[in-house]
């Protein structure tokens, strides 16, 4: 869950994005139960309808399913769906602009690749500890 909300972005959007991120990272897996709207409201001092709106978006996307009387759960295939959607946009929307920005700053391709390798090595070190 987000430690605090960012102004300028609706809270329900931030909640939905955080849940998507948790599913993508594997912190939430297919079939896992989500925190209830009441718990979100209490923890973050928000209106329960705000959390409910985030969940409704995720239900519409097929990432979350409501089990009547039990709660909200990560839908089967949610992770795979997010990976598929992310892969279709990542290169064009994220990687290419990042490389172009690095080149504009005067980095060459080898330097950019070295930074990527160093970053991923650092991530692996953090995961191992």
Automatic annotation (TrEMBL):
InterPro entries tied to this protein = Tscrpt_reg_HTH_GntR, WH-like_DNA-bd_sf, WH_DNA-bd_sf
Gene Ontology molecular function: DNA binding; DNA-binding transcription factor activity
UniProt key word Transcription regulation: yes
Which residue numbers delimit the HTH gntR-type domain?
9-77
**What CDD domains does the database record attribute to this sequence?**
WHTH_GntR (cd07377)
Which keywords label this protein? DNA-binding, Transcription, Transcription regulation
| Domain of life of the source | Bacteria
Alphabetical list of SMART domains matching this protein: HTH_GNTR
Q: Which Gene3D superfamilies match?
A: Winged helix-like DNA-binding domain superfamily/Winged helix DNA-binding domain
**Does the keyword section mention GTP-binding?**
no
- Which protein, by its recorded name, is this? GntR family transcriptional regulator
């Amino acid at each position: 869950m987000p430690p605090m909300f960012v102004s300028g972005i609706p809270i329900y959007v931030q909640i939905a994005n955080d849940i998507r991120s948790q599913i993508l990272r594997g912190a939430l897996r297919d079939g896992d139960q989500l925190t209830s709207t009441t718990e979100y409201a209490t923890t973050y001092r928000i209106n329960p309808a705000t959390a409910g709106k985030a969940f409704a978006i995720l239900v519409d996307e097929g990432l979350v399913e409501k089990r009547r009387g039990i709660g909200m759960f990560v839908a089967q295939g949610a992770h795979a769906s997010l990976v598929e959607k992310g892969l279709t946009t990542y290169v064009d929307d994220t990687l290419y602009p990042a490389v172009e920005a690095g080149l504009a700053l005067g980095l060459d391709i080898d330097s950019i690749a070295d930074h990527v390798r160093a970053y991923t090595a650092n991530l692996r070190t953090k995961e191992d500890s």
